[in-house]
Amino acid sequence: MVAIDSEFKALIPPLSEEERELLEASIVADGCRDALVLWDGILIDGHHRHEICTRLGIEFDTIEMANIETRNDAMMWIIRNQLGRRNLTNYQRAELVLKLKPAIAEKAKENLAAPTGGRDSMTLQNSAKSIDTRDELSKASGLSHDTIHKADFIGQHADEETKQALRTGETSINREYTRLKSPEGTHVLISQSNSNEWYTPSKYVDAARRVMGGIDCDPASNEIAQAWIHAEEYYTIETDGMALEVIAWLD
Asked: Which of 15, 28, 49, 142 could form a disulfide with 20 if both were Cys (CB 3.0 to 4.6 A apart)?
């Protein structure tokens, strides 16, 4: 009997419709070739295969992971296993690895709680104190600190439609992060205290692009604004478009 843990199951990224159809077709044709992985009788790998096999009455094998000691270890194993074997977008990888934050923190606490009597224990404690969560998440996911930070911000502020577009690769982390950080509705001063940057709201930029078919030149811009303006050519405060010679074309 295979037990399903809802918290463990929630760590598994959902399959796309195409991926699910391909997996089911493979199982129907060739059977469930890979054994489902259990920890203490609880399924930790093979949730999609288990659902298909159970629904269609197809037999499957299981193996038990004996080297996983705690529930926290099991959760870390699930996430790292998914990161290592699934063809995930960067946002899906970031979503997964961000779920490791509590587990890493808990692991550090467990290490710090170790006895302090001997040299080995002291070494273990020093090692635990030096754990950098950002480094651990970066190493596990293969993503930069900056990308993980942006994905975390998106996860807290974006709507579900945007997150789904990121999961399917229809948009990028950088684009959605910049869009969420950009002003909307009116010209807004980015920072009242220390910035003189004003941005055209994206709805007006989109309207101009629809009318003109694109934006050839943005004479006063920066890298942030170009995330949604996408001008063929643009000038920043460093390149100073006002200092350039202008050639006027008259009809």
From this structure: 15
Distance CA 227, CA 174 (A): 8
* Measured distance CA(218)–CA(216) in Å, rounded: 7
Q: Could you tell me the sign of the dihedral formed by the alpha carbons of 33, 34, 38, 44, in that order? A: negative
Higher local confidence (pLDDT), 44 or 83: 44
Question: Is the predicted pLDDT of residue 33 greater than 90, yes or no?
Answer: yes
Tell me the pLDDT tens digit for each residue of 72-102: 899 989 998 988 876 889 999 999 989 888 8
Q: Which residues of 177-199 are buried (b: 16+ CB within 10 A; e: fewer)?
A: bbbeebeeeeeeeeeeeeeeeeb
Question: What average pLDDT does the chain have?
Answer: 80
Q: What is the DSSP string of the chain?
A: --B--HHHHTTSPPPPHHHHHHHHHHHHHH---SPEEEETTEEEE-HHHHHHHHHHT----EEE-TT--SHHHHHHHHHHHHHHHS---HHHHHHHHHTHHHHHHHHHHHHHTS--SSHHHHHHHHHHHT--HHHHHHHHHT--HHHHHHHHHHHHHS-HHHHHHHHTTSS-HHHHHHHHHS--SS-EES-TTT---EE--HHHHHHHHHHHSS--EESS--TTTHHHH--SEE--TTT-GGGS-------
